[in-house]
Every structure is written in structure tokens, then in C-alpha cells.
Amino acid sequence: KAGVTQTPRYLIKTRGQQVTLSCSPISGHRSVSWYQQTPGQGLQFLFEYFSETQRNKGNFPGRFSGRQFSNSRSEMNVSTLELGDSALYLCASSPDRGYEQYFGPGTRLTVT
Amino acid sequence: GIQVEQSPPDLILQEGANSTLRCNFSDSVNNLQWFHQNPWGQLINLFYIPSGTKQNGRLSATTVATERYSLLYISSSQTTDSGVYFCGTAAGNKLTFGGGTRVLVKP
User: Fold this and answer.
1) In which band, very low, low, confident or very high, does the pLDDT at A109 lie, cut at 50, 70 and 90?
2) Which 3-state string (H, E, C) describes B36-88?
3) B34 burial class (0-12, 13-18, 19+ CB within 10 angstroms)?
């Protein structure tokens, strides 16, 4: 089975721009979660989608949003980028709650 | 919410040495995972271990859920074991991670 894939792998954006990141889960997995990793804050949960519905949300501003499509692929969007949004964004997939989660390779976003 | 603490924060080992990494969590959990973050940032699954003991080659893990801790053992360490190790516990599917243990194995 193919693993979790994320595109793009690297991205450089300017303050004020917006960005869309994509995540394709393992085949058959319906839950996709997103995480942000920064040196200062560590790994933090952004949100989780299951069957095209946001099921859980972390403590991030409304500039961070996401969605999930009927094939379980997910996208996250960050609008009005700030320097502090520079981070590694990881997505994880699992069949449902209570199962092992598997992570993609991440998208490294740099905001200048 | 759940608090997760990992110790030690840093670990320097000579190749061939054994080590134990610890993960303490503040509340009862029904899901605990150990990961190794590779140099490119990907989290590689090591163990899914809500309770009990598991072994995979030179690595093993034990979770004592009633006492709210998990241990990761690395035996006969190799330079390829270097990197950051994270534990994470999940409520629903929201994983809360510890701060990680950075391991450096010297040849």
C-alpha cells in the first residue's frame, strides 16, 4: 500500500499571501489530521477531517482552514501568511479514531 | 487537555550502548504511539502501544497505562538510530506530543 503523500514538499511564500497544501491518505483511510511543527511550539494539532467533515479542531486562528474531498484527500489553506507560519506541516491518516496514525513526509513552508 | 512530557531531552550515546527514553502523560489514554523523526522531517512509526510490551528488532516499548507512562528501549544503538524520538497520545484522533528526545549515537 502506498503511504501518505503530501504536496508540495517545499514552498516559499511572501507575507500576506495564501497557500494551499495537499494530503492524500493511505487507501481506505477516512480520517486525515493536520499538524504544525515549529522549533518553538513543537508538534501541534491543527484539525481532523473524517468523511468530509471537520471532526476536531486545534487552537489556531481562523486563517487556518481545511477541507476533505469524497476520496478522503484533504487540503489545508492558510490565508494572510505571517512570518510565524513558517513551519513543517504534517498530515496523518488512519481508518478512524482509535487506530494507529501514519504520517506523510510533510510540507516545509517558509514565509518571507 | 492531556499533557505529555518526555525525558531526557537530549541523549548522547556511544555506538553499541543501550538506552531508555521515557514518556509521561497526565491522563489515562487509550492510544499511545512512538515515532522517530528522520532528518527530512517525516515521522516514522515505531510502535502503537496503548498498553503492554512490544518488540521490533533492537527496539522495544512498554506502556503502563495505569501509571501513565511509556518507555522506549534502544539496545545496541547504531548511528542510524540518531534523530528525534516523539511519543504521542490521542484523544479522539488528536495526537498530543511530547517535546521529543534528541538522540545522537556516536561511532
Assistant:
1) very high
2) EECCCCCEEEEEECCCEEEEECCEEEEEEHHHCEEEEEECCCCHHHCEEEEEE
3) buried
Residue A1 has pLDDT above 80, yes or no: no
Residues of chain B with C-beta less than 8 angstroms from the C-beta of A60: none
Cβ of A97 within 8 Å of Cβ of B92? The answer is: yes
Quick check: A79 and A96 in contact, CB under 8 A?
no
List of chain B residues whose C-beta atoms are within 8 Å of the C-beta of residue A102: 45
pLDDT value for A6: 98
Is A55 in contact with B40 (Cβ distance < 8 A)? no
Q: Which residues of B touch A87 (CB under 8 A)?
A: none
Give the confidence band of B28 by pLDDT, cuts at 50, 70, 90: confident
pLDDT at B47 over 80: yes
